[in-house]
Amino acid sequence: MATQLSTPKSFSGMVISWEALPDDFRLEDEPVENTGQPLLAGALRESLEIIGFIQPQMLIASNFGICATLNGEFTAKAPDWVYVDSVNQVLNNRRSYTPNLEGNIPAVVMEFLSDTEGVGYTQGEEYSAKPTYPPGKWFFYEQILQVPVYVIFDPNGGLLEFYNLENGRYKLELPDEKGRHWIESMGLFLGTWQGEKEARTGYWLRWWDSAGNLLPWAVERVELERQRAEQERQRAEQERQRAEQERQRAEQESQQKERLIAYLKSQGIDPNNLPAT
Predict the structure, then answer these.
(1) 231 and 146 in a common domain
(2) Are residues 74 and 90 in the same domain?
(3) Same domain, 199 and 233
(4) Please, are residues 82 and 45 in contact by the beta-carbon 8 Å criterion?
(5) Do 216 and 228 meet the contact criterion of CB atoms below 8 Å apart?
(6) pTM of the full predicted structure?
(7) Is residue 96 located within the same domain as residue 176?
(8) How many structural domains does the chain have?
(9) Helix axis angle, 36-50 to 218-266, nearest 10°
(10) Are residue 52 and residue 178 in the same domain, yes or no?
(11) What is the pLDDT along the chain (277 residues), one digit of tens a residue?
(12) I need a labelling partner for 121 at 20 to 30 A (CA). Which of 9, 111, 186, 244 fits?
């Protein structure tokens, strides 16, 4: 792949350009820091797939290289989850993604805090504003990419930090009264949920639609369908029982009428010619 350059931009002494990943560039194969991270990322994508949110031009990935060139130095960061609303070309086997050159700037990036040393979730590069090469992730997302929404999530304690880019700086946003954050670019709320999925019990990030409905995972969708089918079965059974009760009532009325006619006849009275009362 030939290196392509988009128009560089410069601010605060930095020159930023958007170059395609060179063929000979090796992305760092960073090990997954915690076995829960792929589950968290996968769960976010799963519910979006179920409702048909994901379109071909979108890019949704995890631990995937996002590239930029800072003062001539090629840089790639791999957020735990990233959402790009539109790319220029749909590719099945992307090695990386360079904003502006290959499509839009990511609308949302997320980082999940990890406990690699087994001593609890600690602050790391997710909060690093280091501007020198290689830059910290905070600096990369805020100053270089200028991603509108940056989320940092502690899956151990359930703390969700939601940052909006305002005037070139990230500003911490407080959740609404339901503990959720509205993401305008996606038309969805993001919040935390506590429970079990895929043998992991703890805190998860979940989506809610604009009406406040939780977007289900596949197993929840199946359970909802099972409950609806059971409710329909119960409704049909109740209807059958009502019909049976109506049939029995009509039969009892018919039998009572027949007994009455038989009695009148036994008394010499014509049931079809009863005197007016």
Answers:
(1) no
(2) yes
(3) no
(4) no
(5) no
(6) 0.78
(7) yes
(8) 2
(9) 50
(10) yes
(11) 334 444 445 455 789 999 988 777 776 545 445 567 899 999 999 999 999 999 999 999 998 899 999 999 999 999 999 999 999 999 888 889 999 999 999 999 999 998 654 444 445 789 999 988 889 999 999 999 999 999 999 999 999 999 999 999 999 999 999 999 999 999 999 999 999 998 899 999 999 999 999 999 998 887 777 778 778 888 888 888 898 888 888 888 888 888 888 887 888 888 788 777 6
(12) 186
Tell me the DSSP string of 155-182.
TTTTEEEEEEEETTEEEE----TTSEEE
**What is Dmax (Cα atoms) for the chain?**
119
Same domain, 52 and 149: yes
Both 225 and 193 in a single domain? no
Dihedral over Cα of 100, 102, 106, 110: its sign: negative
Per the structure, the complete domain to which residue 233 belongs is given by 217-269
Name, in order, each residue with C-beta under 8 angstroms of 1's C-beta and a sequence gap of 6 or more. Answer: 20, 21, 22, 23
DSSP-derived pairing of the beta strands 108-112 and 149-154: parallel
Same domain, 110 and 78: yes
- CB neighbour class for 31 (10 Å; exposed up to 12, middle 13-18, buried from 19): exposed
